[in-house]
Design brief:
This protein is of the alpha/beta class and about 325 residues long. It has eight helices and 15 strands. The two termini are about 20 Å apart. The chain binds NADPH dihydro-nicotinamide-adenine-dinucleotide phosphate. The site of NADPH dihydro-nicotinamide-adenine-dinucleotide phosphate (NDP) has 32 residues, from helix 1, helix 2 and helix 3.
Length: about 325
C-alpha cells in the first residue's frame, strides 16, 4: 500500500544554488529496502545542515531529503526481525546522506540499519540522543577503553553546547568525571553547569598559537568535537598517557600538529566514527544509553520543532554554531 507524506526536499538549481522546501511525496518514490518506517521523530545534526545546503561531501545527488536520524513505527517489513508496529530507529549508515532521510513522514531502509527501541527509552528520547548522543557515547566508550578513569583528572569537552558536546558533558559527569566545558557561548554556562560541567574555557582560551610543541599537561582526557587548532592545543595540553577522542570538524578538518604529544607523553588520539559503527557494538552502546549510562535527557532537548520550523530557522542556526543542545523534529 502506498502512502503520501510531507518531506523536506533539497533541489539543486541550474546555477548551482540549492533550494529547500516542504513537498508532498509518496512511499512509492522511496528507495528499495526491507523496512518501511512511519517516522514520528527525527533530530537535527550538523551533518544534516551540510546536506540541506548542498555539501557534496555529504550528499552527492539532489533532489534529496536529509535527516541522518529517524525514529518511528514499522509500517511494512519483509525481514523477520521486524514486525508491523515495532518501535524502531535508525541513526547513521547512509540514511540522510544519499538515501532519503528522516526529515520526512516515511523512510525505507535495509533491515541491517534498523535498531529496535530498547526498553528504557521512548521514541522521543532516542532522538534526543540521535547520532549526536550515540557519537558522544562512542567517544566515551573509546576513552574509557583506552584507560581513562575519573581519578586520573579533568576531562575537556570541546564544542560543549553542541549536540555531541552537550551529551558528552552530561554522560562524563554522570560517570563521575570532572568535566571542563570548552565553549564559545559564555551565555550558556548555566546550561552546561546543569549538565554537570564544573569549569569553562572560552574558544580563545582553547587555542595556543605558539610554536611550543607541548604545553603544561592539564587534561587526563579530551572529548573533541571541533578539530583544527582547538584539537591541536588540546593534544599539546594532555597529560602523560592521556587520551583524546576526535569526531568532528566544525572548527577545521586540518590538523597542524607535531608528533611530540604522542612520542613524548604517549598521548592517544582516538578516532570516532558513528556512521558505520558495527551493529553488535551499536546495540551494546544503545542498551547502555537506555540503562546504566542513561542521562537526564530533559535539559538537553532545548528545542522541539516542526519540519517547517526546521527549514525556516534551525538549519541556519546550527550552521552558524548557534545551536544549544539537541533539536528534535516532530514529524
Ligand atoms: P553542533 O553544531 O550541534 O555542535 C558543534 C558545536 O561546536 C557548536 O555548538 C559550538 O559549540 C562549536 N563550534 C561551532 N563552530 C565552531 C568553530 N568555528 N570553532 C570552534 N567551535 C565551534 O554539531 P554536532 O554536535 O552535531 O557535531 C559536532 C561535530 O561532530 C561536527 O563536525 C559533526 O560533523 C561531527 N560528527 C561526527 C560524527 C562521527 O561519527 N564522526 C557523528 C556526529 C557528528 P560552543 O559554542 O559550545 O563552542
Amino acid at each position: 500500500m502506498s502512502h503520501t507524506f510531507t518531506a523536506l526536499r533539497i533541489t539543486e538549481n541550474a546555477d548551482k544554488t540549492f533550494t529547500r522546501q516542504l513537498v508532498t511525496r509518496n512511499t512509492d518514490e522511496l528507495p528499495a529496502g526491507d523496512v518501511l518506517i512511519k517516522v514520528v521523530y527525527s533530530s537535527l545534526n550538523y551533518k544534516d545542515a551540510l546536506s540541506a545546503t548542498g555539501h557534496k561531501g555529504v550528499t552527492r545527488n539532489y533532489p534529496h531529503t536529509p535527516g541522518i536520524d529517524a525514529a518511528g513505527h514499522v509500517a511494512e517489513s519483509n525481514d523477520s526481525r521486524f514486525a508491523i508496529g515495532d518501535a524502531v530507529f535508525v541513526t547513521g549508515y547512509d540514511l540522510g546522506m544519499n538515501t532519503a532521510g528522516g526529515f520526512a513522514g516515511y523512510i525505507r531502509v535495509p533491515a541491517d540499519w534498523v535498531v529496535k527501541l530498547p526498553s528504557g527509552l521512548t521514541l522521543q528520547e532516542s532522538m534526543i540522543y540521535g547520532t549526536a548522543g550515540f557519537t558522544a557515547a562512542l567517544s566515551v566508550y573509546k576513552l574509557q577503553h583506552a584507560g581513562l578513569k575519573p581519578e586520573k583528572g579533568e576531562v575537556l569537552v570541546t564544542g560543549a553546547t553542541g549536540g555531541v558536546g552537550s551529551i558528552g558533558v552530561a554522560l562524563l559527569a554522570k560517570l563521575g568525571y570532572q568535566v571542563i566545558a570548552g565553549t564559545g557561548k559564555s551565555s550558556a554556562h548555566d546550561f552546561l553547569k546543569q549538565l554537570g560541567a564544573t569549569g569553562f574555557l572560552s574558544r580563545e582560551e582553547l587555542v595556543d598559537m605558539s610554536s611550543r610543541p607541548l604545553l603544561k599537561g592539564r587534561w587526563a582526557g579530551v572529548l573533541d568535537t571541533v578539530g583544527g587548532d582547538i584539537l591541536v592545543t588540546a593534544l599539546k595540553s594532555t597529560k602523560y598517557w592521556g587520551h583524546v577522542s576526535c569526531c568532528g570538524l566544525v572548527a577545521s578538518p586540518t590538523l597542524n600538529a607535531s608528533v611530540y604529544p604522542f612520542i613524548l607523553r604517549g598521548v592517544d588520539l582516538l578516532g570516532v566514527d558513528s556512521v558505520e559503527c558495527p551493529m553488535d557494538a551499536r546495540l551494546i552502546l544503545w542498551q547502555r544509553m537506555a540503562s546504566d549510562w542513561k542521562i537526564d535527557l530533559a535539559p538537553l532537548m532545548t528545542t522541539e520543532c516542526s519540519l517547517a520550523e526546521l527549514n525556516d530557522v534551525y538549519i541556519d542556526k546550527i550552521l552558524q554554531g548557534q545551536a544549544l543542545g539537541r533539536i528534535v523534529v516532530k514529524i
